[in-house]
Design goal:
Radius of gyration: 27 Å
CATH class of the largest domain: Alpha Beta
CATH superfamily of the largest domain: SGNH hydrolase
CATH topology of the largest domain: Rossmann fold
Shape: elongated
Distance between the termini: 108 Å
CATH architecture of the largest domain: 3-Layer(aba) Sandwich
Structural class: alpha/beta
Order of helices and strands: HHEHHEHEHHHHHHEHEHHHEEEEEEEE
Strand content: 5-15%
Length: about 450
């Protein structure tokens, strides 16, 4: 009995200790959620990472891991609209190579049986420590978990004071006046991790003089190899269904050869590996028009890449077409919205793979403007059967391209008469081949077009 009395006196202390522990844990969770508004500005953190957790568990066909070249090349909505497959970009800008394993672990919590596409371009690095921004991008949008903490310890192990990566509020505490709605949670505009970025839709840079494909191999830094082998060990131990792939981009000789070395390792070990750098022209990518900088395709290149990879996945994996089915309404809605979003910058035939040909781009000359009449002229595209002329302006058709004329192969100019006064107009010219049934195959075109402003009065 005295013992029981003593136990009764002690029991409340244990209760108090437990309550204190639970209170501290709850406080930590609230603090972690609160500090989530103090993160780097990165739209991809919201659309690619946070919206991922809104998808139904174990529902996606595939998940694509990597850096910014993932979400510039593959648009999940294109894959859905054309093939009815659900492939999510669980990717982040400047992804550190030593974060990929942890992103794979994190993604598999929600989608354990998906096919995992892993972008090899992440491993082209020389092995140097990632920038502070890259670490924040990789970590700030992941939910709190032991996996995230292990990733941060791994990435920041050699730093003197890595505390800001565990608690972003340390660095971004003064951001009250610059907080944006998408720092507070997932975006209301959910295009299934398809990119929303101005240079992607409106910019084109000629990369043809820098674009090279390398056949040789070179040594990969040991620190990178160690991380790469750790990733393979995790894949083997957990029987992860994976496909490694390299995306086409401007690479230095050493970068290209490092990736070749990693591809050789994968093939020797029996992992599926898709070298899309070697398939650049099979994909239909034109380095002259289809990139917005050295590392990223624009919308025109992304359409071609997404179509090629989508067909490959459908032909080589047992993915069903889920368009229009119950439970997938949000994907149908996202496809409809994304196509409207892209309409001002793309032409209707671009997304039809069977409609493309290898005709060269007709070089556009400067517009000739006389009052409210504009004449567009261009150089011959060899082999073309004719040309289609497209026009757009802010005041007509929502700023979308629309067809204004079709001419034969001998015609290399078109006069557009009676336009609005003081209006900016943009033109482009598309070459085509015509078959016996007058069905067209379209060549490459100047995606930015050539612009000019009409005079002040008719």
């Amino acid at each position: 009995m005295p013992f029981l009395k003593r136990f009764g006196a002690i029991k409340p202390k244990w209760k108090n200790a437990l309550r204190a522990l639970l209170f501290c844990f709850a406080l930590f969770i609230v603090f972690d959620h609160f500090q989530g508004i103090f993160v780097v500005d990165a739209a991809r953190g919201t659309t690619n990472i946070r919206n991922y957790y809104k998808e139904r568990p174990d529902s996606l066909d595939a998940v694509y891991l990597g850096g910014s070249n993932v979400h510039a090349f593959w648009q999940p909505v294109f894959g859905w609209d054309e093939y009815g497959i659900a492939v999510w970009n669980f990717s982040m800008d400047s992804m550190p190579h030593d974060a990929i394993k942890y992103y794979l672990i994190e993604a598999r919590k929600k989608q354990p049986n998906a096919l995992y596409l892993i972008n090899l371009n992440v491993f082209k690095t020389n092995g140097k420590a990632p920038t502070d921004s890259a670490i924040h991008w990789a970590a700030d949008f992941l939910p709190l978990s032991l996996n995230k903490i292990r990733m941060l310890f791994d990435i920041t192990g050699d730093m003197e004071d890595p505390s800001e990566f565990f608690f972003p509020i340390i660095r971004f505490h003064s951001r009250w006046d610059s907080l944006k709605p998408l720092a507070l949670g997932a975006s209301d505009v959910d295009y299934k991790s398809s990119i929303q970025y101005s240079p992607f839709i409106s910019k084109s840079e000629d990369q043809s003089s820098k674009y090279n494909i390398y056949e040789e191999k070179s040594e990969v830094p040991q620190t990178v190899l160690n991380v790469f082998y750790e990733l393979l060990e995790y894949i083997d131990a957990n029987h992860v269904n994976v496909l490694f792939l390299e995306v086409p981009q401007v690479l230095s000789k050493q970068e290209g050869q490092r990736i070749n070395t990693l591809e050789a390792i994968l093939k020797e070990r029996g992992y599926p590996c898709l070298d899309l750098m070697d398939e650049t022209f099979e994909i239909g990518l034109n380095p002259q028009t289809d990139f917005y900088n050295t590392l990223h395709t624009n919308v025109h290149g992304s359409i071609k890449f997404s179509d090629y990879l989508g067909r490959y996945l459908v032909e080589n994996y047992h993915f069903s077409d889920k368009r229009g089915q119950a439970g997938w309404e949000s994907w149908d809605k996202a496809a409809e919205g994304y196509m409207k979003y892209l309409s001002p910058w793309t032409l209707p035939f671009e997304r039809a793979y069977a409609k493309r040909s290898d005709l060269d781009i007709p070089k556009l000359n400067n517009l000739k403007i006389s009052g409210c009449d504009i004449t567009v002229t261009w150089k011959e595209a060899k082999g073309a059967d004719g040309y289609q002329i497209y026009r757009k302006s802010n005041s007509e058709n929502g700023g979308y391209w629309h067809l204004i004329a079709t001419v034969d192969m001998q015609t290399l100019s078109f006069e557009d008469k009676g336009l609005r006064a003081s209006e900016q107009y943009t033109y482009t010219v598309v070459p085509f081949l015509a078959d016996e049934e007058n069905d067209f195959l379209y060549g490459s075109f100047n995606v930015l077009g050539v612009s000019g402003k009409t005079g002040g009065s008719k």
